[in-house]
Structures are given as C-alpha cells and as structure tokens.
Design brief:
Layout: H1 4-20, H2 28-46, H3 52-64, H4 69-90, E1 92-99, E2 102-109, H5 113-127, H6 136-149, E3 154-156, E4 162-164, H7 166-179, H8 196-203, H9 205-221, H10 227-233, H11 235-246, H12 248-265, H13 268-286, H14 295-298, H15 304-307, H16 312-318, H17 324-333, H18 364-369, H19 373-382, H20 386-395, H21 411-426, H22 431-447, H23 455-469, H24 489-513, H25 522-535, H26 538-543, H27 550-562, H28 594-618, H29 622-647, H30 653-666, E5 668-669, E6 672-673, H31 679-694
Antiparallel strand pairs: 1-2, 3-4, 5-6
Length: 695
Amino acid sequence: MNKLPEITDLFARLASNLKSLDPTAKNEDCLVGVFNPAISELNRSLNLDDEGSGVRVLDAALSLMCFKAPQVFESRVEYLVRTIVAIISSSISCKVSRFQRQEILLIGSSISRDDCTELIEAFADVIGGLKGHGKLSLLLSYAVVRVAALSSCYLYLSPLTPILREQSVHERSNNVLKLLPHFPGDYSLKNHEIPFRLLLWYLDPLILKHDVSRILQDTVDRPFLCLNKEFHERMDWRSIIICLAFSPTMFVETRALLHNWFLSTGLASVLQLLIELVSVILDVVSRPMWWGISAEMGSKLPFSAAYFPYNHHLYRILSGSLSSESFLHLVSIINLPISCSGKHSRPTIKQMPMKISTIDHKSLWAAAMNFPDWFFFASVLLFSEKSFEDDFYSKCGVAAPGTEKKHDIEPLCFSSAAAKYIAWILSPADESHQDLLVDWLAKLSGSWPLKQFGSDTYNKEIADYSKKLKKHRFPVYKGESNLSKEYNYKTIGLWLKEFQNIYLKNQNKTASSSAFCEPILSYSLRFRHSVLFRRIPLGILIGCPYHLDEFACEMLLHYSATGTISRYTGTWKHLKLDSEGYNDSVVQTEENTKEEAAAGASLVFRLTDLVVSMAATLFETEESGLEFIFQVKVKTCRYLIKCIKKLLPFNDGIMLMDLFNRLLQWRSNQGQEVFQGCTDLDDVTNELRLKLCSL
C-alpha cells in the first residue's frame, strides 16, 4: 500500500479518531457517554458479521480487561500513526538504474512532489490533534518531512533529462510555512537520524534563510553578544550549528548567503556573523564532543575540504598558525608581488569595470575576509621596527639576530608583504588602486615614530618588566607599568592627522572607483575603505603596547571605532597640559552618542578576542601569550571604562545586561580575575550592576 489515496485514507481515519477524543471532557462519565457510540463503531469495524452479538462480546471483553473508552482510542491512534509512518518510510529507496549502458544512482521517495503537497495538507489536519500524545507528533512529523525532502521537484522523461516543475516548489514552500509552528525546535542525534531541522532546510531552503536571519537580527540588536559563546550555550543556535556541521552543502549555501548579504549591505554585523560561523564550524569539526556530538558521530564528520570546496589550499593556511613565514607564503599564494627594496611598481593597466566574480563567495578574497587575524597581523608587521621584529619574529618561528637563523629574511620584506596584503583586502580587483594604497601605507609605516626609538632601551625595559610579570602564573593588574611613555597622545594625534589625510585621499579614489563596479558591490566597497581602513592603526596597539600610554591607546581606539580624532582639532591650544604632558580631565572635542559608545566598547571586546586568538599561535609558551593579552587589556581598559560610563544613562536593560556579562568575561583570563586592584574598573562594574538592579 504505497499509493497516495490509501495514505490519505489512513490520515482521514486518524483525524476521525482524534476528533472522537475530546480533550475538553470534564469527567470520566462524560467520556464514557461520548465514547460509547464510538466504541460500538470500533466494534463493528473489528467484527466480520453485522449482528449485535459480536458487539456485545467485545464490549464485555473490554470491560473484563478493565479498559476504558479513551484508552481504546488512544491505542488506535498510536497504531494508526505507526502504520502511516511505516508506509511512508517504505516509499524511500536507494537503487541503481541502468539506462543506455550507464548506471545512475537513484535516492529518494516514490511519492512525487505533487503528491507530497497533498500529503502535507493531510498531515496539517491532524498534527494539532496529536499534541499530548507523547512522541507520536514528532514521529509522524519526521516521517512526513523526510519523505517530502527526498521527493523530487523534477519530471524525468528519461534518467538523463530532468525537467523542473516550479509550481510544485512554490506549493510545497507555502505548505511548509503553515506547519512551522508545529515543528519541534530542538535537535536530536539519536539512532543516527538526520536532524529534523536539517530535513526542513532540504524541504524548503527559505527555512534556512529564516534561521540565519533570526541570528543576524540578534547580532544587530545586541552588539555585545559573544557569538562564539552564544552558539554553544543557546540550544536553538547550537542546533543550527550542528545541522550545518552535518551538511557541508548547507554550510556552503549559508556562507554564500551571508557573503552576498555583506556585499549588498556592507554591514559589519553581517561580516562578523560570517567570521564567527566559519570559526565555529571549524571548531565543531576539530572537537565534536565539546559540542555534544558523540565520538562515533563525530568521527563521521567530513574533512574541512567538504566545507570549503573552493580554494581549500588557502583555507589550510588561513586556519593554521600565525607566523611571519606563513604570512609570506599566504601572500605568495594570492600572487601579490613583494619588493624587498620598498619600491612597488606594476605595468600601467587601464581600469576595467569590477565584476562580482572577483569577490564572490568562491573567491580568494572571500576566504581571506573570513579570517581577520591575518589582516591585523599584517597591520602589526606594517608598523614594526627592527628591534620589535627581532623579539616578535622569534616567537613566530623566525630567529632573532644573534642566534642561528633558519631563514635569512629582511624585515623590509615583511613590511612590504604587509602593505601588499592590506591593499589587496581593501581593493581586491583594482590593481592601480592597490599600488596607490601600497605607496600610502609605506609612507605611513615610515612616518611611524616608534621606528626611531632606540632598540637597546626598548629591550632593557621589556626585559625588566617581563621579570616582574613572571612572578605570577596569570598576570595581575597592579597599576600602570614603569615603561617610559615615549609616544604620548600628542604624538599619536599628529600621526593620526597624517593618517586621516591619506584616508581622505583613499576615500576620493574609492568614490571614483565605485563608478566602475556593479551596484551591488558599492556598499561593501565603502565598508572596506571606511571601517577596515580605520582598523589599520590598531596594528600599532597590538604590536607596540609597551610604548603607548592609555591616552594614546584611547585615541587609536576612538579613531578606529568612530573615524574621528579625539582631543585634536588641528591645534593643541585648547589643552592645558601638566609638566608631564598629560591631563586626565581633558574632554573630547565631540560628545559620543550612544551608537559611538557602543561601537567603542564592542571594538575593545572584539579586539581582545582577536588578540586571544592570535596569542594562541604566535607565542611558543602560554605564559608569553598571557602577558601579551594582559598588556593589550591594560592599555584598552581606560577607553572601555569611558564607553561604559556613556552607556549607563540609557535604560536599555538587554543591552546593559549583555554589556555586564561581556565585561565580566573580559576581566578574566581563562576564568581567573586579572584586574585585581583596578579601582576604576571595579567602580564601573559595580555601577553597571546597580543600574541593572534598578531596572
């Protein structure tokens, strides 16, 4: 019995029995009165003769066995459901078809897509009545969705000539949308079954789009969410991740969806979600048991090549360890010429219209955008002077001067490679624009004052301070370090002014370039040349935290978050400086709005996450990595406190709760508090806690 009329007849019987079960009955007497006629009908269907003797015999037998009318009908409902499930499941097969000396593997259901539309409608009539019947609702839902997902949208005149029937696709989508409220939201990996949500995605891809849109909406509305943590702790989000891990095809589609959204909107939140999604999927593949997947199921997950079918060789480098040599290898794969002389030239090329294929989800550029660590690593290399490189590269696998060298690489090569990589990220298709950017970045790198700093003094101060930090397994905040502040905020302000001038030149060039690209690319073009360009100075903060005081770090962070230079209007006449050149009471030239303060705090949290990720692979010892993270946190603390204070007056309970949770997470290293004794941070934490209690 595998024809649709017979299956729908079973659904009709099930609907009739469910209708007979009246859940609004108030007592057993009412139930008996209601079910007596139904019992008689059941008896007549079970006896071969039409006489009443058989009915009386069955009634008496049921009475002697202490069965009551509701139990009889519940049993009949259960067996009807299991019968329907068995029949529907039997329609699914896997076989080899031979046609004209060719063998074709056919996997699917013998129930056609048109018949599935009618099947879903019959299912919709009974699914509501199955509530309260244990797992019967889930059992029937899974069977119907599974057979519908495996039914074909095509008509086959022959095995090799499929014809798409678009009408059946639209009808099925409409029916599935009506049933969504009845489907379970959790996920189950029992009996090695395909997760229910994954079947729904195959049944209707719009459901996948809806799930991704819902997560994106939360990401936009709640900027302080730690997405990696939310993906693991929210069961509905985790179910989506697990389903994507079990279906590389769906992951590729999801990544393409988010990438296209980013190209068409230029929203940083879309890119951030895409970055976190790629990171989480790689994490699930590497340690499935931490995500609740059994060792047996985890061993069946595909290799990373299945999730990244395009340019997988590049993904292997991008997802690997950060090192200077790996960075040079990455740049060479992208085919960016590197000049160790500092001169960059390229044959004159007429500017051609930019095509979307150069930055679509299959491109090298799309792959690089999913791993921002390398962009910031390039920013660090861009502003590194020789003494810093000697120390930094030794932790990256490149020997320092005075030791046995494995590779003879000039520091200028790293700076040149960094400029080329950043320029390629900002302008992947316009080679003439790339050359301009490389020249501008080389000029900025050369004008960075730290390259004039004495290496002997630097190394001595770092060594002295490191001895103090090594007394603690986890560095603990004890106030500002004793390192000299060679470059205060005035110096940084002057340098940022020069950077801003180049930024404006680049904006003008970008405006002219936008006329040569497709309309859908204009938004992402603006993002790259505004938000990403402003992130370049963060390489100074990451690479040189020992030489910057908190005022200078605040200026770098504020500029990266908002695009404005705080405490600087072109002159310094409005500042009253003390004998050391600092004034803690200096106010910014423009008051931050809620959006600016939120952007600033979010930047600090994400920068710290980035530094934690970089430290995991940059340093040979865990202790060195913890010191590196600690220094960046100390130098960003002042700006974070200012941003939080600007957000306290707003009565946005959800935002403040997310901010509070993220702040507690930020204050610790591997679960241990590291800001003991920082009264300013303690005060703002307590103020935030009291604010939440008052809401």
